[in-house]
Amino acid sequence: MIRLVVDGIVYRRNSFGGIARYWTETLRALAGRVHVDVVLARDGARPEGVRRRAVGSLSAYWAAWRADLFHSTYYTRWPRIRCPEVATAYDFIDASFPLLRPNGDGFVGRQFEALRRATAVIAISQATRDLAVRLVGIDPARTFVAYPAVSAPFVLPPPAAADVRDFRERLTGGAPYLLHVGARRNYKNFRTILQAFCRAARQTDRHLVILGGRQPLTEEEIGWAVAARLLERIHFRPQVDDATLRLAYAGADAMVQASLMEGFGIPVVEALACGTGLVLSDIPVYREIAAGMATFVAATDVEAWSRALSAPITAQPAWREEVLRRYTWEETARTHLRAYESARA
Question: Per the confidence metrics, is the pTM higher than 0.90?
Fold first, then answer.
């Protein structure tokens, strides 16, 4: 059995984010097939059901010394590691949009160095893999695509109609709504959605529900809503649990995302699993995972977004079955195993 050491830096950087979920689900799926030790900072989150050791402890040094492979979760390097390394490529937003720099100065250099040093590179989508080959110069033969998947409770059948009605009544007074999920920082391009909603609101009675993202709307954004007399039709909840998010997906007319670039898009597959329609920016990765199952709009075209947000939006029951079949954590784990076996060989 392969002995794998994984740095747990993702559990310190953003323990509730999509990358942390990706790792927790993948490590659980790998249980029994790979001997995994996750080395965590003492002040980091503790993922359930995952073997873990603390940074600087004797057990962590012992695990690293015995390891067959080291897997960096976020472009780190251990100075005394002696075994082959595997790295995961999530996206290339910093390299593609240097003015935005969501990860700060110096990140692109660290990212490229880690990917070039790795014996095998796992990308979370074909779009990300293609950028790794083109931008970083990674040999395609040592790349593997391991998609994120749909987690519980989103794999459950959609909530009962009565529960959805009750949720909508509490949230919007029963009015239909569009849903935005997750962070709203620069490359997420949320302002395009908000501006388009302010224009579209005259043609529709829909509300806009914003779930996740720690920062409230800015003063400028609130000013747009006030000027359009829409403040009472915009609802912000910074943190919700998965059970609430499942109800929010099921009750929405559509989930909307206008990102300039993404590595994958976990909210997209979660929404499809809950039977929700989609309006997405027309970027390669969204085409890759939701072609034929979404309305696509040029990312920065406010007028086109305004038309899309006021138009009828449908979802087909077959889309849920397709996404649940295509994206599973078991398949993610299988791809990791292939990458590990390749790197070890």
Answer: yes
